[in-house]
Amino acid sequence: MSRLLSKVTALATLVLGFLAITDALGSDVSYTGTLCQNYVNYRVWVPPGVNISLIEESLIQQGMNAANLALLPSTCLEPFMEYVCSSSFPRVEATSATNTFNVRFACKSTCQAAATQCTSLLTAAGKGSLAPQCDAAIPGTTATVPPNGIFFQPDNACNVVQPLNDAPVAGGAGNTTTCDSPFIPDTMLGPGGSSSNPQYCMAGCCLPCPAQYSLYRTGALETGFKITNTMRAISMVFSFILMVSYIFLPDKRSHPSALILFFAICVFLFSAVVIFPLVDTRAMQCHDAINPSTQQNNLKCAIQGALLIFASVSTCAWCTALILNLHLHTVWNSAWFAKRYWLLHSLCWGFAIVVTSIAVGMGEIRWEFATLCLISQEKSSQIFFYPMAAMIFPAFLVHIATFIHIARISAQAGADSETMSRSTLSAGAAAVISHRRHVMMAIKIQWRAAVMAISAIMSVMFYWLFYFLQLKKIKPETLRPHIGDFVVCLKSGNGHDACADLISPYLPPYGLMIAAEFLVSTIGTVIFVVFFKAALVREWAEWFGSIRYLLSGKRRQKKEQDQFFVI
User: Fold this and answer.
1) Is the pLDDT of residue 217 over 80?
2) Which sign does the torsion angle of CA 480, 481, 482, 487 carry?
3) Which one is the CATH code of 2-162: 2.160.20, 1.10.357, 3.90.79, 1.10.2000?
């Protein structure tokens, strides 16, 4: 029986248009099955020793049962059934010759229509073996008609099959053009009914933009990214306060405070891009109901993405300048940068402009993740992350060298102080005091720059690793097979959250995704905590005090009184 079924499986998909049949080569019978009852109303040719029920049993074993067919949308179900029925049940036509018949097999155009409407859906659902292969020999036919097998036939010599009436096909009673939530109907159908956006659409249904939101639990990404946007907005406010402090307060625009000023300006710009999604998140993410934003179809995405790239690279550049200046001042006792700000401006702002221009010129700015536009995953490392890493990682090593130098010099100074203190302190007590003094001195000099450098390193490294290792999982071509499982789960009557849990192992972990975005959103807050010292509060108080003094007229009155002393 198993041998017979394997033979039936091959014959069930034959397509041919040629030959005279005798009893030895098969026979013509009436169709008595159920699978193709709405398509077949003609005499059917069957191979020797095979009947209609065996053919349909073989088709069901391949997966063409009522339950699976019910999952297909109407746009795919009808052409697929025409393909299956015309291939599985060749048409017998009488000729003028006695006991001689012609057998018509399936049309190539029928196969092509089914392939257009169903291949992507069948592949996504893990049933790619059922997808029509219209330009190749039909599987198994080389065993029946050696050596090359049998191919699909032209329209003028083939078995044309169409629905006989408006009754539902087998297994398709529930098929309509309505898409199961969260999917929406494809409003962008192209020639022949094919979707103009196959990345997000199949069989007439599409994942709405932003697509990734529909694949996690209900409201999960909306809530998570609302938290990260709030954190970025807080960082924007803090970095603005720090920036204004270094602009208006006396002596804060001179070297080396000017370095912190430019660094604060970059951090503010980096955080300020949150204004775009806060105003209208979806307008930043999506061009329309289906397509995500790119710099080509969304001007706001292009502006926001370019600003984010510029701010990110310039932040790393001025962070590097701060660390190098500290190294030169501490290790070499040099203020080399103090008279060469033209060089710093040229390198820091210039490098950021070059990277941004390359990204814009290559057309690689688009939305793919969270609520902001950035560089596409394919080019992000080459254009964005590698240039930043080329600055941050060497700067971090220089910073470590600076810290080691301070520790070494402090240890030498401590040895001298211990020698001087032996007359009044025991050797053990002097050593403890000296060691504590060395550690506190190093921390006092270095802790702000150390925290800043470590924060920058952690943020860039963590976000880069997430972008490089995890974000590629949400690329449409990677997700397509799992989206098929998601569709089948929904059509089986399961809830959205249950189906989201089913495919969650194939998506970036939710907690890791939010953590990566949250970490870079806190940079402005971290910098504020590090650099906003109590002295700045006193200086602001003095600044406001001087403003009040000038506005009150007391200064003018004092000048008039001083004239008597001058006389």
Assistant:
1) yes
2) positive
3) 1.10.2000
